[in-house]
Amino acid sequence: MNVREIPRRDMNEVLQDPWVDTGRRPWISGDIAYVPVRDGYPYTMALKERRRKGRGYQKIGSVIAFHGEKPDWDVVSEVIDRHKPEAVIWYRGHRGEMRIPEITVLYGEVSDTMNKESGIIYHLNPAVVMFSQGNREEKRRIAGLVKPGERICDMFAGIGYFTLPMAKAGGHVHAMEINPDAVYFLQKNIQANNLGSRVMVSHGDCRDHITGIYDRIHMGYYDAAKFLATALQHAGPGTMIHVHGIGDNTGEIKEHLDMAGVLAVMNQRIIKKIGPGKVHTVTDLVIK
After folding, report:
1. For 163-189, what is each residue's pLDDT tens digit?
2. What is the CA radius of gyration of the chain?
3. Under CATH, which architecture does the 134-287 domain have?
């Protein structure tokens, strides 16, 4: 792991710099912080990969979130001592088309918080709306594909997980979301990131609001393939569609393409593991 050595007191000031590899945690020894460096940026030394023993967790603003099996109290206590969070939650899953989190509060009280990722501000309440840090690299990848001026449709915008990176990259995004709580935070996050001129929000079922032809259509929902027939009606030659799902859903995607009489170049990749034998995937389609 490539790192830069900096004074510990300066660490918080540099964590949002573009050279910081936010997928790895800094290592602190005394007054020195060893901050991981992204590929292609200068570094001062190379360290062996360090692996923290015990359960993994996510730090979402002032809240710590555990996934998977419910953590033992000694694990929770260790995290409280380490991070001094306002709350610790156990994320059990989500329900319904509004993707409402199902959580158990293990410590403290959950309230609105702010999480900053890749220079983008996300206001949210983890007890009310979803947030997954496991999608960080996918957000970067998608933003890197966006060309300034693109007309983009985000059919499942949530609080702006992908809407904000795509708009920041220069796209003009039509963001659609059915969950009113998510829409509240989406609008707040658009303003917090000064992206009001690049994002138009529609509250409701995406099938009722999608209109015209788009250069790019993002479908960040595990059951996205079920909405692909609608998306294809708003795609033209060269349109790129990103279809999220669980596991290999290319068979279902091909069925929708065949039924619509549409040809496309297809490429699927794994975003993250979401459980035993389950992976979160995204399939990129380029319409011919």
Report:
1. 999 999 999 999 999 999 999 999 999
2. 20
3. 3-Layer(aba) Sandwich (3.40)
